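My current task is to audit a protein record that another person submitted. Alongside the sequence sits a line of tokens, each denoting a local backbone shape. Where you disagree with what is written, explain briefly why. This is what I was given:
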Amino acid sequence: MLDELKTFIKCCECGSFSAAGKTLLLSPSSVSRQIDSLETKLQTKLFQRTTRQLILSDEGRFLLERAEDILARLDDTVASLRQLHGEPEGRLRISVLETYGRLHISPLLPKFLALYPKVSVDIELENQMVDLYRDAVDIAIRIGPPEDSRLKAKKLTDGRMLLCASPDYVASFGPPQAPEDLARHNCLLISRGRRQVWWRFHKGQEHRRVQVQGSLRSAGGTPLLESALQGVGITLLTQWSLQPYIDEGRLLPLLPQWRASLYPENGGEIYAAYIDNHYMRPAIRAFLDFLGAHFVQ
């Protein structure tokens, strides 16, 4: 039927079977047979035939509007399929957690682009959640696996959350001796719009959950880190964002005997989420493999 649809569209463009036949390298009788076959399959008349011209019927106009779109989509699909096993190319749209992207993904992009010169990257460093379907994002890099069951995820790094404050803050207010002590401290909070924030701790078989509050909330870690460095309060962030400042002595780990986390069953692991599509574009596969080779588990 595809050939017949193409012939039908060409007849509409040319205005006659003979003119369409010259373009398609077919005889007028062959064009006529294809149109007759299409009308039989659709059980409707597509043209009002006269000796001078073809006039589209209402059904013909209805089909023409949709047939052109169908064939355009088919051509796009065929072109995409031909690329599946070819060299990665085209635009790659990536959304990355702001702090992690700045520290760990952005420095890798020049090497990736040198390896795949036909790929261009659009990257957004942002902390809000994105919808890969609605926002046309190819890969989203976030803390924790995606909640959307339609998505797949590749684990990039194991994560650990650390509780930290500056030496000045600890000197002024003292270090917490137990998780419950945090209720009396100014805590700098990652918040996703929740009014109440809980930090979770476990040590062996012992589990604690502490409600915390403080003078600063943010969807991302950078404002909290900057404020912690200046002695404003205690923060709970990922080890990969805090470790350089701990090594410099600008932050002190607190309650090191406890394992801390922001969310149940999520200790800060980083995942690259992508749409579960059997026909993955080579550019997406290349970037996921590139990240996997860099972030060796």
